[in-house]
Design a protein that fits this description.
about 350 residues, alpha/beta, Arc Repressor Mutant, subunit A, Leucine-rich repeat, LRR (right-handed beta-alpha superhelix), 3 domains, eight-stranded parallel sheet, three-stranded antiparallel sheet, 16 strands, globular
């Protein structure tokens, strides 16, 4: 452990924070690197700016090169088999991250008795996957809280109405894998919330209180949420939107030019002026990286104007030879696609 500490203390301040944050996850848990990058940015470890994504990925690569983080590729079990980077910490490295976090009151976990009673001014709370109930949620009101995770507690079905009243500084809220079906209105008071993960919950529509959160970077919706509200385009800062259950998207989505990643599965695009997105409307979303659909449509040649497009995955789309003109593409996957010329 002393040798490992020496490796930690030789890190720059930014990397120290990023490494300590890994203690928030169980030792063997596989972490999606793309999601981890959003968490680091949401927490403020990575300074805002045009090059923040390069800086964040450099942090992952730096920690991996120093053997403080294990990174590997694997295929996800979903249509198209998108190759995704995963990472984790193991053994003594994870123990070191936990020790550092406890010393700085960075983390509180209900699964670790040694942490109990020490979380009055902690920064992150993980209500872990063991015997957590609604009452334990209502007991926690730390003002300095930055991250709250209830992930994989499927028996949690509700959130106390006043839970977020004192959590004005919350940046990350992870409710994935819970039985929560409704949001308290007090969520709209969290003006600095940047990451909201609702994957695998019982929520069927985007909560209205989300409309008042203007600092959003990351929003993941469950499969059962099959419709996006018209006002979704008001969240101008949104950079990642995951809505696998949505089939038709409001036309105003084309104005969300900050979107870097758009994860869809069964999108149906319109061919008429009926208030829903058409293929040519994607031209304005210059950072679009993933597009999924089961309805075969012809992509417009206008997409060659998307100069910043780096990654494009198409499922059952008709494409033309013009796609070769998109010189900045780093990644191109075509699944079951036809060619028009």
């Amino acid at each position: 452990m002393p040798i490992l500490r020496l490796s930690y203390f030789s890190l720059p301040a930014r990397l120290k924070a990023c490494f300590a944050y890994l203690s928030f996850y169980p030792k063997v848990e596989q972490i999606n690197c793309e999601y981890l990058v959003y968490l680091w940015i949401g927490e403020g470890f990575i300074p805002a700016g045009e090059g923040q994504w390069d800086v964040a990925w450099d942090c992952i690569n730096h920690l991996a090169n120093l053997c403080l983080l294990q990174v590997w590729d694997r295929y996800e079990d979903r249509p198209g088999c998108k190759l995704t980077n995963y990472c984790r910490t193991r053994d003594f490295l994870h123990d070191l991250a936990i020790t550092i976090s406890k010393q700085n009151k960075y983390i509180f976990s209900v699964e670790e008795a040694s942490c109990k009673g020490e979380n009055d001014d902690c920064y992150r709370i993980l209500l872990g996957i063991k015997d957590v109930n609604d009452a334990q949620i209502s007991e926690r009101h730390p003002v300095s809280l930055r991250t709250l995770s209830l992930s994989q507690n499927w028996w949690i079905t509700s959130i106390p109405g006043n839970l977020f009243t004192a959590m004005r500084g919350l940046r990350v809220l992870d409710l994935s894998g819970t039985g929560i079906a409704k949001f308290p209105q007090s969520l709209e008071r969290i003006k600095f919330l940047k990451v909201l993960n609702l994957n695998d919950t019982e929520i069927e529509k985007v909560p209205k209180c989300v409309r008042h959160l203007k600092s959003f970077l990351f929003l993941a919706l469950p499969q059962g949420c099959m419709k996006l509200p018209i006002w979704i385009n008001e969240i101008k800062c949104l950079q990642h939107l995951e809505c696998k259950g949505v089939r038709r998207m409001p036309k105003g989505m084309s104005n969300m030019i900050a979107l870097r990643t758009l994860h869809l599965h069964w999108l149906e695009l319109s061919s008429e002026h009926d208030g829903f997105m058409r293929p040519e409307d994607f031209v304005n979303i210059t950072q679009l990286q993933e597009l999924w659909t089961v309805k075969e449509l012809e992509l417009p040649k206008k997409m060659t104007t998307m100069k910043d497009l780096e990654s494009l995955i198409l499922l059952r789309f008709t494409t033309g030879s013009w796609i070769c003109d998109m010189a900045n593409l780093r990644e191109l996957e075509l699944k079951c696609c036809g060619g028009s010329d």
